[in-house]
Design a protein that fits this description.
This protein is an alpha/beta fold. The chain folds into 3 domains: 109 residues, 3-Layer(bba) Sandwich (Glucose Oxidase, domain 1), CATH 3.50.30.10; 109 residues, Orthogonal Bundle (Enzyme I, Chain A, domain 2), CATH 1.10.274; 231 residues, TIM Barrel (Alpha-Beta Barrel), CATH 3.20.20.60. The strands form 2 sheets. The protein has an 8-stranded mixed sheet with strand order 1-8-7-3-4-5-6-2. The chain has an 8-stranded parallel sheet with strand order 15-14-13-12-11-10-9-16. Strand 4, helix 7 and strand 5 form a beta-alpha-beta unit. Helix 1 packs antiparallel against helix 3, helix 3 packs across helix 6 and helix 12 packs parallel to helix 14. The mean pLDDT is 90.
């Protein structure tokens, strides 16, 4: 049994067989073996070679492959796998250095690949890709199942991976993928956000993880405590079975709140909206007792599916989401591509600092045809319900003016063809950079509403990459600098008389709800599965208590002190969550 601690990013308990997903940049950690395990390890290596060779023979027998160029490539792979000196090198490495077969394969093949890549001959340097391919094939046999099998699962699994993209995660079939655990990532990475939306328990930032997991064991992913247990003993399994049942019972109790208003004990209504990535999630918002869509992350239209969305694709997706919530508000955020959300379907620069690069509204303002296609679809959908448009990552007034000017251009185009749209469409912005927070008073004059994206606001204020596990302990909404900015944006929105919501992950964090209410927030937008739990907190407190808590926090000078204080208060209200 091995217990690993990471970051809990999506609540719930999953207990199932592991499925290891490899990726090209998968890093195999160095693991030592005992001298007595040497022969067994070499035996595993031999088997992996035999299976890889057999696989290539089967593939090579297909007519299409024999006739094409691929046949030559496979022949090269085959020669390599049968090369005695290569095999001997790997075997010797295992024997002398007492390391696992996967570590030996990966290390030696990567040495060879980097040697090839450095040779000043296009043909030879391109062979590095073949070496990676061979590495992948051997590792597949040493580590277990293949990534493609995720798409054709027939049994329940928990996925273990070095890292997952938001798109991979969004493609998981929930009936079979019961949970996942990754070596990398942070609480507000988009992969984590998708996991929460789908309600898949997940733990990230576990460090070296998946190479030592025996394919036939069971793995527990505890998304509440941020723990992963590999090959648990019987007692642990029993404890977790009981715990999982308690959690199911708790979720069931929370679901009873659906019909009840999100109102504090002293009668203040808090509007609870949902964040979605796909239109079919909208229905869940209503099921969970939410009152509309506060953030529709439309860039997922680009991230999922093999083709670039057309205007009709945009329109149909928006129409579906609007239909699902009826006359309730739908805030459609224009595409937030870039950083960790890279489209497969179109060119995007390879940037050194993508988070500070061509992302979000900047990308749209440089690619007007892409932007206008989306705006046209949003405007056409605006007559179907209470639609509002929102621009992400606005950093200054000029950017907002530019975006609004493009919107007006598109309105004029639609006028020409007498296409109906709502000319009074509310236009809001996300406040997710320190510069927009600091100039909120200026931006408020030209915005219908603000939505505070705390995930990026924390990232940019503290200079901490939200998806980087090496600095994840520094990523904290409780930092006085972050709270100072949020307070000031709330103040400016009240002064200007415009609406404000919080749509970053802080809005679904039980520890922060009282503070947000005490700061004056009256609208929250969060992952639909989290709505009942947060509603329970809202219904358990008074605004007076929240104001008092908020005043106390404003006198504190460190994130640790604030976090402990908020946590104690939340535990008193909702002990089941902790
Ligand atoms: C945010 O940054 O807080 C936000 C809600 O936007 P996203 O997580 O999609 O970047
Ligand atoms: Mg953001």
């Amino acid at each position: 049994m091995e217990i690993r601690k990471g970051i809990a990013v999506s609540p719930g308990i999953a207990i199932a067989k592991p499925m290891v997903i490899d990726s090209k940049d998968y890093r195999i950690p160095r693991r030592s073996i005992m001298p007595s395990q040497r022969d067994k390890e070499i035996q595993r290596l031999r088997k992996a070679f035999s299976k890889a060779i057999l696989e290539l023979e089967n593939l090579g027998s297909s007519k299409a492959i024999q006739e094409g160029k691929i046949g030559d490539i496979f022949a090269v792979h085959m020669r390599f796998l049968k090369d005695r000196s290569f095999r001997k090198r790997v075997t010797d490495f295992i024997s002398k250095d007492l390391v696992t077969a996967e570590y030996a394969v990966s290390t030696i093949l990567r040495e060879i690949a980097s040697h090839f890549a450095g040779i000043d001959d296009a043909y030879i340097s391109e062979r590095a890709a073949d070496i990676f391919d061979i590495e992948k094939r051997l590792l597949t046999h040493l580590l277990g199942k293949k990534q493609e099998e995720v798409d054709h699962l027939r049994e329940e699994v928990v996925i273990l991976a070095a890292d997952l993209t938001p798109t991979q995660t969004a493609g998981f079939n929930k009936s079979f993928v019961k949970g996942f655990a990754t070596e990398k990532g942070g609480r507000t990475s988009h992969t984590a956000i998708v996991a929460r939306s789908l309600g898949i328990p997940a733990v990230v930032a576990l460090g070296d993880l998946s190479s030592e997991v025996p394919p036939e064991c069971v793995v527990i992913v505890d998304g509440n405590r941020g723990v992963v247990i590999i090959d648990p003993d019987d007692d642990t399994l029993k404890q977790y079975d009981v715990y999982a049942q308690q959690m199911t019972q708790f979720v069931h109790e929370l679901d009873q709140l659906q019909e009840l208003p999100a109102e504090t004990r002293d009668g203040v209504h808090i509007k609870m909206l949902g964040n979605i990535e796909f239109p079919d999630e909208a229905e869940q918002i209503i099921e969970k007792g939410g009152e509309g869509i506060g953030l529709y992350r439309t860039e997922f239209l680009f991230l999922y599916g093999g083709q670039e969305p057309t205007e009709e694709d945009h329109y149909n997706a928006y129409a579906e989401a609007i239909r699902a919530v009826g006359d309730k508000p739908v805030v459609i955020r224009t595409m937030d591509l870039g950083a960790d959300k890279l489209p497969h379907t179109r060119w995007h620069p390879n940037e050194t600092n993508p988070v500070l690069g061509l992302r979000s509204i900047r990308y749209c303002l440089q690619d007007l045809s892409l932007f206008k296609t989306q705006l046209r679809a949003i405007l056409r959908a605006s007559v179907l319900g209470d639609v509002r448009v929102m621009f992400p990552l606005i950093t200054n007034l000029q950017e907002l003016r530019q975006a609004k000017m493009i919107l007006r251009d598109v309105m004029e185009d639609l006028d020409e063809f007498a296409v109906p749209y709502n000319a009074d469409l509310p236009v809001g912005i996300m406040i997710e950079t320190p510069s927009s927070a600091l100039t909120a008073s200026l931006l408020a004059n030209e915005s219908s509403f603000f939505s505070v994206g705390t995930n990026d606001l924390i990232q940019y204020t503290l200079a901490v990459d939200r998806a980087n596990e090496h600095v994840s302990t520094l990523f904290s909404a409780a930092e006085p600098a972050v709270l100072y900015l949020i307070r000031s944006v709330i103040h400016e929105s009240y002064k200007a008389g415009i609406g404000l919501s919080i749509c970053g992950e802080i809005a679904s964090d039980p520890e922060f709800i009282m503070l947000l209410l005490g700061m004056g927030v009256r609208t929250l937008s969060l992952a639909p599965p989290m709505i009942p739990e947060i509603k329970k907190i809202i219904r358990s407190v008074t605004i007076e208590e929240c104001n008092k808590l908020s005043r106390a926090v404003s006198t504190m000078d460190s994130a640790r002190q604030i976090k402990n204080y908020l946590r104690d208060a939340a535990i008193r209200i909702l002990p089941e969550t902790f």
